[in-house]
Design a protein that fits this description.
This protein is an alpha/beta fold. 44% of the residues lie in helices and 16% in strands. The protein folds into three domains: 6-17 and 249-391, 3-Layer(aba) Sandwich (Rossmann fold), CATH 3.40.50; 80-245, 3-Layer(aba) Sandwich (Rossmann fold), CATH 3.40.50.1980; 410-456, no CATH class. The termini are far apart.
Length: 457
């Protein structure tokens, strides 16, 4: 039996390329059984998350400790990890791992320093208009734990915040059953120079960051990926705190032609498939020869993977190879799907880049493979999933700053613009608005124009 199916483009549109809202997906019985064991009744994941959020908002640290013990088996009330432990973990790592973390951090920071987010003022004859860019006071970063430590996720979220000038960067990540955090995560906290680190996961971490407790400070915005319960919690705390986005299982679309190396294409698909049984590794190609070769390579390479069971389930249930009429149709299908990662393994990848409309990240050519983006290329690997690349962007410096509009018109401009403002206000039935504008028709009462507007930047 083949490890991956080969579809026509029509079959793929009705199958692996057709997105279903996560709310409409049936929850696994194992998940619901786990909720029942914790809550004493069979309730939905959203209701379970809501109860945790409300309790932590009301009772703070005490509720955090209780929920962590019930859900994670971690009864340790001292969930903040001191800075000395970060340094010690970094020092314990092999030199090769320290060097890799340092290289990744340097490249991530360098990439994000290139992003233009400058304040500006335009001083004209009527006064000054402009935009002030101000960093957030405090940002919360959630770093998933799951089945593997993810120091790269800490770097990819915390370093853009640091570059943006955020006042305080707070990280939460789930500990193991002994209440401990992996040395790689601790070392990444040291390298990223965050401010505080908490051994805290799940909805209880999102609640603590959103509402604040006696120990965990409330933040202005929460960023970072996570599983179902993290996504549900982020949805429910919007308003109390800002959110970067909602991230589902990872997804990669590879567009390849007959020039692609089938072994490399298969390796790139498996790199995503091993993340999660719900991951979506998809190949689009007009070449049947390549499709068959990649399918064969997937079978050969799968046998040697430590997470072969996960990768096999992902390929069988959410992945596949799609035969397209040509590369143009492949790009059209990719744009409609709006993948997190779009990899162009074709003879002339730059010829396709200009036609890409929807993707979290575009990986141009066989030497710019997606795994480099996961770790060391530079852009954040926190990217939109579930089709949200149609309207949202990867995590960047822009997620950690606010834009404040600046309006400083002089008396003459204020008087001249009063009349049309009053007309619009009366048209809306807002009499007080109109009167406030009409009172400014006298241009002789001084000015708010600045002699040097750049002084406020």
């Amino acid at each position: 039996m083949p490890v991956v199916n080969i579809y026509t483009s029509a079959e793929a549109r009705e199958g692996i390329l057709r997105r279903a809202a996560w709310e409409d997906q049936e929850m696994p019985a194992r998940l619901l059984d786990g909720i029942a064991a914790i809550f004493g009744e069979r309730i939905s994941p959203a209701e379970a998350v809501g109860r945790i959020l409300r309790d932590i908002r009301a009772r703070g640290d005490a509720a955090v400790v209780e929920w962590s013990a019930r859900i994670d088996g971690n009864p340790n009330p001292a969930f903040e990890v001191e800075r000395a432990a970060w340094q010690a973990a970094y020092d314990r790592l092999p030199a090769e791992q320290r060097a890799a973390l340092d290289l990744a951090a340097e490249r991530i920071a360098r990439f994000h320093r290139k992003q233009p987010m400058d304040s500006w003022v335009d001083a004209g004859p009527d006064g000054t208009l402009g935009q002030l860019i101000r960093p957030l006071d405090r940002a919360g970063v959630y770093v998933p734990g799951g089945t593997a430590p993810l120091p790269s996720s800490l770097l990819m979220a915390a370093l853009p915040a640091r570059v943006a000038g955020v006042g305080q960067v707070v990280v939460c990540t789930p500990p193991n059953r002994q209440g401990q955090i992996h040395d790689l995560i601790l070392a990444a906290a040291h390298v990223a120079q965050i401010d505080r680190l908490f051994a805290l996961g799940g909805a209880q971490a999102i609640a603590a960051l959103a509402y604040g407790t006696e120990t965990v400070p409330a933040v202005d915005k929460i960023v970072g990926a996570g599983g179902l319960f993290i996504t549900l919690a982020k949805r429910q705390v919007i308003g109390a705190v800002g959110i970067d986005g909602f991230y589902g299982p990872t997804e990669t679309v590879v567009i390849a032609d007959e020039a692609a190396d089938p072994a490399w294409a298969a390796a790139d698909l498996l790199a995503q498939a091993e993340h999660d049984v719900l991951a979506s590794p998809i190949l689009l190609t007009p070449s049947r020869t390549l499709a068959d070769a990649v399918a064969a390579e997937l079978g050969r390479q799968l046998a040697g993977l430590e997470r072969a069971d996960i990768a096999a389930a992902s390929l069988a249930d959410r992945g596949g190879i799609v035969l397209t009429a040509d590369l143009a149709e492949a790009v059209a299908l990719a744009n409609a799907y709006a993948p997190e990662h779009l990899c162009l393994l074709v003879a002339d990848p730059w010829a396709l880049v200009g036609h890409v409309r929807n993707a979290g990240g575009v990986f141009v050519g066989e030497h710019s493979f997606e795994v480099l983006g996961d770790y060391v290329a530079g852009p954040s690997h926190v990217m939109p999933t579930e089709g949200s690349a149609r309207y949202s962007s990867p995590l960047s410096v822009a997620d950690f700053v606010k834009r404040i509009s600046l309006i400083a018109l002089d008396a003459g401009a204020g008087a001249r613009l009063s009349a049309p403002a009053a007309v619009l206000a009366r048209g809306e039935g807002l009499t007080a608005h109109a009167r406030a504008a009409e009172m400014r028709t006298d241009a002789g009462r001084g000015s708010t124009a600045l002699t040097d507007p750049s002084a406020c930047l």
